[in-house]
Amino acid sequence: MSYNSSTEANCVCSEDIKKDEESNFDLVLKEKWMEAQKNEVFRYILNIQDSKILEGKYHFLVQLNIDRGYKRRFPENIISMNQPFNEKDFNFTKLVSEEQIMNLNNTDKDDIIAINASPIEYCHSLLLPQRCKQLPQLVTKHSLVKAVELFSLSLSSYIRVAFNSLCAFASVNHLHWHLYYLKWRMLLEYIDVEKLRMQLSFTFGGRNFHNVSLDQGQEPIAEETIELSENEGHWVSLQNVHLVRKWLPTLEKKMEQCSKNPHDDYRLFIRAEPSPDRHESITPQGILKSSIKITNEPPSEIQANIHKALDNFSQQTLESCGKETEFKAIVFALCYYHAVLAERRKFGAQE
């Protein structure tokens, strides 16, 4: 038997994790990974016999994965963090085509995602940035950017991207990142950063930035902070205003008062989760009209709006122009632009 654990699995139980969402990237990755498993590309079928949270400060997750202990590829002999790449050792240019899931671009960067033939978790894959450059296992700017981009492609709350350095569990000296889905919450997700900020007396720009996380009883503190900042030219960030819905009309009046003669440097940032009912707004109209609005809600009807716009053009119309390819490209661009504007209308006008 073998227990596999590392700091990358630093987490606590996930009972309160919300239902997982999936993007097209998540769906394709999972489909390709399961297809590889069906085709017996892996060294073994993933079977985690047991999972356990260790007692102690860090709540390490330990999982029993017997097959990985006995059937994984024998690790490379790593003796230094500066160990150079050795083409004679196993490296990811030697992967067979069945192990390669997807190419992230069509440039000479050769950034690909491949399965990990000895998986430790569901959909355990490898991000291989600039694979053909045969770089050693050291973080590069390009690889870090690609790792972050994977997060932007995914909607899953379970996705994890990890890097094992040389002399710290890395078994192959060829630049790679680990990618998998872990249904256990990372310890980092539970850290109360607001308490740390108060403990360290931390503020940006020499104590001129104030962060108020709204909950029961925090409204008076928020009002005092706004008044101070409006006079002194500070910045204020109000978080989780959706939790104090009854107080928002008071905030609206406070903003109206402060707008009469504010300090030039005064700024107010308001953060809230969207209403469960898309036809109902939690935030009062007065606040919305006086604000620059930014949303990170993924568009839900772009594709439908594009199809609806394209349906106005018959095949005969699309083929009637002498420059058919160029004409179709222009029509599609206009339909896409229209779809974006139609989606944008859901969030109201920017004034």
Automatic annotation (TrEMBL):
Domain of life, per lineage: Eukaryota
InterPro entries: AAA_lid_11_sf, Dynein_heavy_D6_P-loop, GDPGP, GDPGP1_N, P-loop_NTPase
Dynein heavy chain region D6 P-loop domain boundaries: 195-295
Matches recorded under Pfam families: Dynein_heavy, GDPGP1_N
GDPGP1-like N-terminal domain ranges (all copies): 25-180
Gene Ontology MF terms in the entry: GDP-D-glucose phosphorylase activity; guanyl-nucleotide exchange factor activity; hydrolase activity; minus-end-directed microtubule motor activity; nucleotide binding
Gene Ontology cellular-component annotations: cytoplasm; dynein complex
GO biological process terms, semicolon-separated: glucose metabolic process; microtubule-based movement
Name of the protein described by the UniProt record: GDP-D-glucose phosphorylase 1-like isoform X1
Biological source species: Bombus terrestris
Gene name of the encoded protein: LOC105666845
